[in-house]
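FAQ: What does the model actually see?

It sees only this:
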Amino acid sequence: MIETMHPIPNQNNNHPASLRVFFSTELWERYGFYVIQSLLALYLALHYEWPDKQVYALVGSFTALTYLSPVIGGWIADQFLGQKRTVLTGAVVLFISYLVLALIQSEHVLPMALAGVAVGTGLLKPNISSLLGNQYPIDSPKREAGFTLFYMGITTGIILGTTLPSQLNHHFGWAISFASAAFGMVISFFTFLLGIKMFPIEDYGQFDYHISKILKAAAMIAALWGLCAIIMFNPHFADISFLSIVLVSFYYLGYCIRQEEPIQAKKTLVIGLLCIISVLFWAFYFQMFMSLTLYIARVVEPVFLGINFPPPYYVAVQSIGMLLFGCALSRRKTETELASRSLQTNNKFLLSMGLMCLAYVLITSLALMSHGSALLSPLYFIPAYLLISLAELLLSPVGLAAITTLAPRYNVSTMMGIFFVSLGIGGFLSGKLASLTAVSAKNLPITELKLDYAHSFTQLLLILLLATGIAAMLNRVIKKLLMSTDNPGV
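And it is asked to produce this:
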């Protein structure tokens, strides 16, 4: 058993003071990432004039890699560097990648820079979430609320990253927008560096310095960067790569289940089933950065309440909704029993799928009912994006908290990486689904665009309803597993 450093007991059952460090670090990391995520489809379609299917292929691969790489990032932390050093390394890689995007605008350099963003995200995201989980006692009823507050930092960064860069791009061009992402990473790096010096933020395992560990970690990071770049340059290779990652992840989960004691094995199986629901959710969530981005850019009024209102602003609306809903949810009374909280997590995952269905019903209805050449009002899309915000809030921070509760301490970062794999596969599938909405020709009249989108979003809604049915069946299986862990004789 790996010797672990236990967090200092949380007096008065309050949140740890270090929560502000995690909040601020993720705020600026997410700012930088969403500069790229929210502008990438528009950048490819407007700046390089790529066709829709090529745009969706690259954006889907990029999105997938940013959430698949955390598996390697979590493993590097667990085996070589520890969580804190891996977070700082990820921040440096992100800074370099954003700087390259800002300084060199080339179709040939672009995939290399995006690969760097994927690698840096993979090193930082699972480990900072794991560190936050380590700040709470395992039975703390404040854990889920703490992750919800942490998610508010993420959401604040998203709001900034989807509004400010659009204005920078409008007034100064793409390069300045991307440079602002690099600046955000400077703030993130030093916030975390100062935080780990000021507060008792400990890795899950004791870090022992060995030059061989450093070299192995560096080799793995370089290899991951190279693999991501190859996938970016060759979208057709992405299919094989992502299928391989899914198989490896399932094999790893199966291996862990076979090695663990029965109760822990059931908890690990629950993690796997929650990840399947997560995949289904994110496949439709990430349409905000693909099909919905180009749909809004083409058939929705670009001005709202007298101000310029580009597609990234809708993501900001979604994030503002998360802040409002998150404040309310973080104050709700939480179950103190571990088993009860796990059952709540399962139900929230299913509810998030239901809310996503409602959002797509609204979006599809708008597409079906709209006729003529008039552009749609932005006001029509705001309720759908607010539903998506509540859906995300019921799944993502809740899922992060659940992993730190269900996973064994010696394996928590790797399991956190497995959870992020579900986001990656969802992102990859999102690119495939978005291709159903690809416009066949440039400069189509608005009336024809509306007809195309009405048909394609109806298809997406039907697929989503099927996915929600699958989630409902998995919900029942998860309940039985959790009840048997609470009552081992069941």
